[in-house]
Amino acid sequence: MLELRQVGAAYGSSRVLFGIDIAIAEGEVVALLGRNGMGKTTTVNAIMGLVPLTQGDIRFSGERISGLPPYKVARSGLALVPEGRQVFPNLSVEENLVATAANHGRAAAPWTLGSVYDLFPALTPLARRSAGLLSGGEQQMLAIGRALMTNPRLLILDEATEGLAPRIRREIWTALERIRGRGQSVLVIDKNIRMLGRIADRHYILEKGRIVWSGASDRLLSDDSLRTRFLGA
Amino acid sequence: MHLLFVEQILNGLQLGIILFLMAAGLTLTFGIMNLVNLAHGSLFMLGAYLGVTFQLLTGSFVLGFGFAGVATFLIGLVMERLVIRHLYARSHLDQVMCTVGLVYVFNEATRMVFGPEPLHAPVPALLSGTVELIPGAPYPAYRLAMIVAGLAIGGLLYGLIAKTRTGMLIRAGASNRVMTSVLGVNIGTIYAVVFGLGAALAGFAGFIAAPILTVYPGMGDNVLILALVVLVVGGMGSVKGAFVAALLVGVIDTIGRAYLKDVMGLMLSPVAANTVAPALASMLIYILMAVVLFFRPEGLVPAAGMRRPEAPSESSSDAPPGAGLLARWRVPALGLLGGGLLLLPLVAGLADSPFWVDVGLRVVIFAIAALSLDLILGRTGLVSFGHALYLGVGAYVVGILADKGIESGFVQWPLAMAVSAALAAALSVVALRTSGTFFIMITLAFAQMMFYGASSLYDYGGDDGMHLPVRSTFGGLVDLYDATQFYYLALALLVLLAGLNIRLARSRFGLVLRGIRVNESRMQAVGFSTFHYKLVACVVAAAVCGLAGAMLANAAEFVGPQFMDWTRSAELMIMVVAGGLATPFGPIVGALAYLGLEKYLSDLTIHWRLAFGVLLILLVFVGRGGLGALFAPAPGGEAVPAHKGSFRWARPFFRPRA
């Protein structure tokens, strides 16, 4: 469904990605791993059209999306839950969910306010509260809900559990498993290999702007050398 | 007295409503697109002209009202598409220059189409009577209807922003543009809609204000400046703040003009009250603005969740197109310029055209003024939009002293510089508390404040200004009535100041200013109290500009408030940018180019400002770096002057207080 071919990207004159190949199939959950500064977020930004490519191209359901402005990329069926959550602080929780809601892909059973509140019951009593006043975990749930409300064919999560209390993390992981259970395709970036091993089908490891390893969950979990070599854990 | 007071309050509210409709559009475009749109006043004017014309055509006030809104909305959309859209990512200086160009274009186009005479806007018959809100106090029905209509439009705007999905997206875009587009929203469309909406609000305001104001080309400019004051007082980007501040400014301005004289009469002698009160009344709202800024730099009701206004920093690495193109002609070109200036009186004498010397004198005086502006605009990166203020102050010092019988230039000129410097010190202490857009607006407002203050100096000609009774005398050393002597005196001063400018640029002080321009917080982090450096730069620039003002008064043999009109400030800015920022010769070239072009175009057509506005817009888009850049050394090769270290310079003059 999503296919990155030999993608390179740079910020000004400093190159970050050097020819990356990633493929995600319909209904698949794929994880992107790597230490800090290896290019994970840049990869996501390149997919969303936030960083121009220096080489290669990106296709989504066969259509070329590289070079499109971010809003067109999003409308083709991608949604991003960005690092740092980036909810709209001056909008209420409900407005955050409603403002950008869409169903461009004509999903048969689209996400609604009800189903998002059902996924994250903690948000229900906060509907009218300004999003800037939420806790980090609540903001994270809101950011995920907001992305789901655009009914994406591929959901991208960038460090969705970073900096959250363990109890909140568990809630987020549980929610992700439920989202996965609906057949949603997901590209997830995270540091928790154990949880990723459970939830993701396949993994890519990025190092210094290159894919250095890719494979299925059982191989990742069984190979300790991978973790020490590329993930520093 | 009581009934009259109520009436004045209503008048104040009505002014406030007009200002709110103007400020709402400005604050939205600023809060969401980070754009300083000085052409907003033109939309006010267009709303009045187009609406009234349609009203006269159809005989229906309602149709005129609708047409004013629809037409300005569409004009706004076209404007956004063609020009404004390309300014979002540009520096505030570019935005100011380009939108001033639009003001020229709109004002002149209106004058061409509708003629220079004011347009009479009829009050609809239904509202031509009076209403007795309070028994015994008839109030014009139309004015009351204006307040109601304004409140209704404001209410609709509130509903749109607070309750609709479009409003949510507008607010979302204001707080996080990138995230909004990542979620599939075409932010460009939102921008266009917001801009069109702001344009329509200005158009409505212009139309409903038309029957009580004079409809003439340029009518929007004064309203614009009041709206900018509202914006700063209320907090940029905040619609609620704009509402509160607009009513506050409207009421204070109206009440001040009506009652300040009586109140001051209680404390001062009638003569003194009669002199001071009008001046003070017209300055009142600017004083309010200064007070608000001093205690609450973010405004009364800061916008919630908006990102802090910050100027998109101009990346110093991209060289303007054509930079260094004529680099090898640099020395010959400068030689030609210098030789031309030096030999001008001789050539003029040979050509039997003595007025060339007067033109040359004007060029030299404006070159000095532009050079002083460049110290803050070009070298320090502070976009001051009120520099002509000191031109006026210098001129008034000379004028007032001459009127009092003190004619010696040895007294007048230094005093002109000293008064300018002192005023700059006081104003800059307030203005420098702000940065970016706020700084642009507050400098503009201060200049406007002094403009109105000078207009109220009835002993010195008021609005009309005064004839300078006698030119400055220099004890027989220089005779300013001799055009050639005056010219060479001015030229000598220009050469001296340009030399000092070059020296300054290489000094440690100049390097600190440059550091501030590139990255102010880094300068602070390495231990410089940038505020003090900026303050000194502003004071020095003001003193030099005051000198130019003193000379200008002598050259024109006239002193008037128009010396510090905001268009004059814009002209100085244009000269600096056109000539090339942060170069000693740029302002000179710019002054020559500007005044030369003005002379050439105005000989060609009376509508020269139209062509000029277009040129200005082009300057922003194609002529970055100005004429000076053409002659500058090839990009990248800027030599860093060797630091001549002396112990005195080894430590910062000003360090942040611990």
Short summary of the structure?
Chain A: Pfam families: ABC_tran. By secondary structure, chain A is of the alpha/beta class.
List keywords for this structure.
heterodimer; A: 233 residues; Rossmann fold; 9 helices; 34% helix; B: mainly alpha; 2 domains; two-stranded antiparallel ribbon; 4 strands; P-loop_NTPase (chain A); ATP-binding (chain A)
Enumerate the spans of chain A where pLDDT stays under 50 for 5 or more consecutive residues. Answer: none
User: What's the helix-strand series of chain B?
Assistant: HHHHEEHHHHHHHHHHHHEHHHHEHHHH
Supply the CATH class of chain A.
Answer: Alpha Beta
Oligomer: heterodimer
Estimate the strand proportion of chain A.
25-35%
- How many domain units of chain B? 2
Strand order of the largest sheet of chain A: 6-7-8-3-9-10
Radius of gyration of chain A: 17 Å
| Structural domains of chain A: how many | 1
Class based on secondary structure composition and strand pairing of chain A: alpha/beta
CATH superfamily assignment of chain A? P-loop containing nucleotide triphosphate hydrolases
**Average pLDDT figure of chain A:** 91
Over all CA atoms, what is the radius of gyration of chain B?
Answer: 25 Å
Protein name (chain A): ABC transporter ATP-binding protein
GO molecular function (chain A): ATP binding
Organism (chain A): Rhodoplanes tepidamans
InterPro entries (chain A): AAA+_ATPase (IPR003593), ABC_transporter-like_ATP-bd (IPR003439), ABC_transporter-like_CS (IPR017871), BCAA_Transport_ATP-bd_LivF (IPR052156), P-loop_NTPase (IPR027417)
Structural summary, described in words:
The complex is a heterodimer of chains A (about 230) and B (about 650). By secondary structure, chain A is of the alpha/beta class. Chain A has helices at about 40-50, 70-75, 95-100, 115-120, 135-150, 165-180, 195-200, 215-220, 225-230, and strands spanning about 1-10, 15-25, 30-35, 55-60, 65, 80, 155-160, 185-190, 200-205, 210-215. Chain A has 9 helices and 10 strands. In chain A, the strands form 2 sheets. A 6-stranded mixed β-sheet of chain A has the order 6-7-8-3-9-10, with helices on both faces. A 4-stranded antiparallel β-sheet of chain A has the order 2-1-4-5, covered by helices on one side. The longest helix of chain A has 16 residues, at about 165-180. With about 650 residues, chain B is mainly alpha-helical. Chain B is built from 24 helices and 4 strands. In chain B, the strands form 2 sheets. Chain B has a two-stranded antiparallel sheet with strand order 1-2. In chain B, helix 3 packs antiparallel against helix 8 (about 185-210) and helix 22 packs antiparallel against helix 23. The longest helix of chain B is centred in the N-terminal third of the chain and has 32 residues, at about 1-35. The interface of A and B includes residues 82, 89, 102 and 104 of A.
